[in-house]
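[job 4471] stage=fold_predict status=RUNNING
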Amino acid sequence: MSKSKIIFVNLPVTDIKRATAFYEAIGAVKNEQFCDDTASCMVFSETIHVMLLTHDKYKVFCAKKIADTKTTSEMIICMSAESRDDVDATLDKAWNAGGKVDLMAKQDYGFMYFRNFEDRDGHIWEVMWMDEVAAQAAMAKGEDCPVGQAIAV
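[job 4471] inference complete, writing C-alpha cells
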C-alpha cells in the first residue's frame, strides 16, 4: 500500500495572527516549522494541513484575483468528525472563536450528520460525521442520502 497523501489547503487571510488564533481555537495545532510573518501551517491531523497565507504570500502561488469570500463562495471544505458530539463541539469552538455557524440548516440523516461554519475570513467549512455502513445500507435502499446523490452525479 502506498503512503498516505497529505492535503495542504491554502487559504488567503487578511490577518495572519487572527486567523491563526481562530484555527487554534477550533483544534488545529500550529507547526512552527512552516510559519513566518506571512504564513501559518495549521495541522488538524497527519494528513490534513491548512496553510494560512497573507494575501501577498498567496499571490506568490496564484496569479488569479483572490475571491471576496464575504460575498462569493470559493469552495466548501469538508472535514470528518469522530461523532455527532464532535461535530457540535467543533461548531461551538468556531462560534466562540468568532466564526459564523450554521450558514445552512444542519443536516441530520440519522446515519450522517453535518453542520457548517465560516471562519473570520469567510472560508466555509463543513464538519461531518457518518456511519459508513448505515450510509451504504441507506443508499442501497434508495433512501435520501446526499452522499449517494453526489456519487450518482
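[job 4471] summary: The longest strand covers residues 7-13.
[job 4471] exit 0
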